[in-house]
Amino acid sequence: MLTSSRRQLLASGGMIIMLSVIAVFVATWFGPATERMLTVFFISLTAVVGIGVYSGNSGILSFGHVAFMGIGAYASSLLTVPAALKGATLPGLSTWLAAVELTLIPATLIAMVFTAVVALAVGAAISKLEGSAATIATLGLLIIVHGVIIGWRDVTRGAQSFFGVPRVTDLVTAAAFCVVALFLARLYRDSSSGLRLRAGRENAIAAGAVGVRIRWERLISFVLSAAIMALAGAMMAHFLGAFSPKKFYFNDTFLLLAMLIVGGMSTVTGAITGAVVITLVTEVLRRLESGFSIGVFDVPPIFGTAQIGIGLIILLAMFRKVDGLAGLKEWEERVLPRTTLLAPAALPPVGARDVLSGKGLTRQFGGLTAVDDVSIQILPGQIVGLIGPNGSGKTTLLNMLSGILTPTEGQILHGGRDLTGLSSPDIADQGIARTFQNIRLFANLTVYQNVLVAALSTHRGKDAVARAQTALDWLDVMKHAAADAGTLSYGDQRRVEIARALACQPQVLFLDEPAAGMNREETDALMEILRRLSADLGISVLLVDHDLELINQLSDRIMVLNEGRMIAQGSPKEIRRNKAVIEAYLGTGRENEN
Ligand code: ADP
Ligand code: MG
Questions:
Q1: Which residue lies with its CA nearest to atom 26 of ligand 1?
Q2: pTM, whole model, 2 decimals?
Q3: How remote is the CA of residue 439 from the centroid of ligand 2, in Å?
Q4: What CATH number does residue 109 fall under?
């Protein structure tokens, strides 16, 4: 399903088609030289959005995508080169491949599928890596594929020029394929898969906790982006007619990444902007490179001007605009924001049925036992307060119960199911949701998207929109739906985090210091909301906070941790009188701060 408004998609699609048609007409009017330049531009733009589909949405820069372009180029060319020529220049080719003679479109489609299969194998490995490790791995991919192309002489003619490819990519073909690639990239960005991946880019831990399987989403975008690269490669091969492995190596990687980074990785708008800017600049600098004269002055040729110029533009862009010229939003998202408030739907009560229990939970960090043999039970519909001085292990306990940390020892059960060792998305799927002590929103996504991601990624996305709307309504943040989550006040951000957890339609909700940074009035409002969540929706709540008034008024039962151990549990009244508790809070001289 698509997560952006239809108005935005129509505007985007309309603009892409209009610009392409205008560009084609203007180039045709200027003549063959401009036509060729623009054909290369469209092919480059296809490749730039191809890289953007992966790098922009996942936040992992890839140096390896030009390798997929190379695979696409060779694979499609092998299918279109006339059989007679193949017989003469590639004698080692297997007989069926030597005999095939396809036209551009079927050859391109087959090359895209082939490249996607290669990407599936490579991506399965790379998607396990994080951040810069993944980036380095993509660099390795580029080098390996280059090596394979050079070494596989029977099929590729090695380092020699691969020639005789029918030159059938003209301006209109390149423009049409480019438009298709732009559409694909734009639709993917706002598909539920693309939105999940972007949420993971913003905050991987929080994304996992609302059910996003980030490696899987990375793999999907990797395969799609590789297929788009193959499309660009096939077009390039059939534009050039002859090429060598060098064509799909560092030079083009540098040029395409420059376009992507200068324009902005995470949007189609950015890809177009970057491709236009870098193409114009290179064209101008290339002319300078060959020397020119202004009036009576003769400027001598300066070699390397184009490369240096692009390098300077990248530096300038990084200093002035880290996210690229287009920033993190599509133009149509800025011009046509979702203005209409969504009508809240009614969320049916969940009615927690299952007991959540942790038995003998222990977690060590090196020599430190952060949580030491703690057992905990949350009955359906109960609010359990969890208190203790700073560093007593409350967050660590929540992290184990929500699958973010694996317990060193102990067991977690939810209504007969053993949850020990499950990943956080799996736990989210079991109806257990949480918020974080240090707010972890998807800062550059809108409030609505923050909540929608959670709804889409749990309960198989059933009734996702209704669940998202209801959650926003419950926490009274519907009025901020169109705002970026990172721009809200502290109190509002905490409420959005609770709304996001609620959109998972949980049976159990963990709240880690939800009132931290809120004033008394906000805390009281929050208290009322939590009371209703428990009373009206029947959700079980495990509430960590330093605000003892909040804990005392809401909790059915309170548990007290000190230095990793459970030192007391009971009703609020019992806890208030408990000597060990009073000592832990006051006797050791520790502050009871928030
Ligand atoms: P609380 O939430 O009660 O303030 P925490 O669970 O955050 O306490 O921390 C308990 C202890 O575990 C602290 O001593 C803290 O330094 C340590 N700790 C927590 N998380 C980690 C971690 N990821 N790595 C190492 N030590 C940690
Ligand atoms: Mg904590």
A1: 365
A2: 0.93
A3: 12
A4: 1.10.3470
